[in-house]
Write a sequence for this structure.
């Protein structure tokens, strides 16, 4: 949990190893309900390397001064991410 939106992360360390490495994040909405899109990758203990990029959308609620995770959606593959982009591009009007 964090007090500031900028401090929210998906980085996760286990036994001194960063097993989830945040690469980037985009804050989609701010306020008492905050939505963030994260780009991250997992550490593969077998190969001792990080795997391919993954994406997750997290929704946080600020209560008692701290942001708490309330919902999350993991985009399971690059193909799924591309399909989401394609569909939203089709649904949204073109920018002028």
């Amino acid at each position: 949990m964090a007090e500031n939106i900028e401090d929210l992360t998906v980085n996760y360390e286990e036994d001194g190893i960063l097993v989830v490495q945040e690469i980037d994040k985009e804050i989609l909405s701010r306020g008492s309900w905050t939505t963030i899109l994260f780009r991250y990758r997992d550490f593969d203990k077998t190969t001792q390397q990080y795997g391919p990029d993954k994406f997750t959308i997290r929704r946080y609620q600020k209560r008692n001064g701290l942001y708490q995770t309330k919902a999350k959606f993991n985009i399971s593959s690059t193909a799924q991410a591309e399909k989401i982009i394609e569909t939203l591009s089709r649904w949204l009007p073109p920018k002028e």
The chain has a mean pLDDT of 95. The longest helix spans residues 78-91. Residues 1 and 7 are 9 Å apart (CA to CA). The chain has one domain: 5-91.
